[in-house]
Amino acid sequence: MAKSGKQTANPEKVLLAQDPHAVREPRANNLEMAIGHEVRTYRKKLGITVADLAQATGMSVGMLSKIENGNISPSLTTLQALSKALGVPLTAFFRGFEEPKSASFVKAGEGVNIERRGTRAGHHYSLLGHIENNTSGVIVEPYLITLNASSDIFPTFQHEGMEFLYMLEGEVVYRHGDSLYHMEAGDSLFFDADAPHGPEELVKLPARYLSIISYPQQR
Question: Hey, which residues does 163 pair with through a beta bridge?
């Protein structure tokens, strides 16, 4: 008999650290605007005013305002002073200039079929997208997993990071550590992937679910 874990998310009580609907200023299209945007961003992160930064760097408020608005091109000496006052490396001011933002688009049925450790006949893993060397510091791997035949041995996975499952069709009993979850279409499971996990029992086939794994990017 499947049992549910003790930790259940309550959407009404969860406070998100990041606003999913937040927007950023338009990307800077020239070097001066890119530098100004980064200077303003780091200043605001420190919670200081333009006057505070002016005092720390020995620059005038007017000069700093022109830098933040992208109206002038600061010298290397000026950037070094800002770097020291804001506590960031000099290169931080150039990160927003022509920085590529990647995207991965996969048409229906065109995901990359892969062999995963413990894969058995009737267990199909399709990678739906992958972006390396992104700016977030996190690797995310979205899979579409299809279980369409019984297997005498169920694979148990254990790896770093977090994993999110969303059941699309069918029914499975899914193990995470010592807990079992009877998952049907519409059910989801979010867990620490360092604990042993995997399908324990295939109740209704075919079974399909999304598996989204995230883990720190190795630099």
Answer: 191, 213
Element (H, E) at 55: helix 50-57
Closest CA to 61 of 49, 72, 46, 50: 50
Q: Which of 128, 151, 117, 114 is nearest to 209 (CA)?
A: 128
For the question of whether the overall pTM of this predicted structure is more than 0.90, the answer is: no
Beta bridge partners of 171: 204
Radius of gyration of the chain (CA): 24
- What is the mean predicted confidence (pLDDT) over 144-171? 84
Name the β-bridge partners of 182.
173
Dihedral in degrees, nearest 10, Cα atoms 64, 68, 72, 74:
70
Per residue in 173-186, pLDDT tens?
Answer: 999 999 999 999 99
pLDDT band at residue 161 under the 50/70/90 scheme: very high
Quote the pLDDT of residue 101: 65
As a whole number of angstroms, the distance between CA 213 and CA 33 comes to 36
- What is the phi/psi pair of residue 37, to 5°? -65, -45
- What's the mean pLDDT when you consider all of the chain? 81
Task: Give the pLDDT of residue 10.
Answer: 54
Contact indicator for 7, 184 with CB cutoff of 8 Å:
no
Instruction: Classify strands 138-147 and 123-127 as parallel, antiparallel or unpaired.
Output: antiparallel
Kindly give the pairing relationship between strand 138-147 and strand 162-176. unpaired
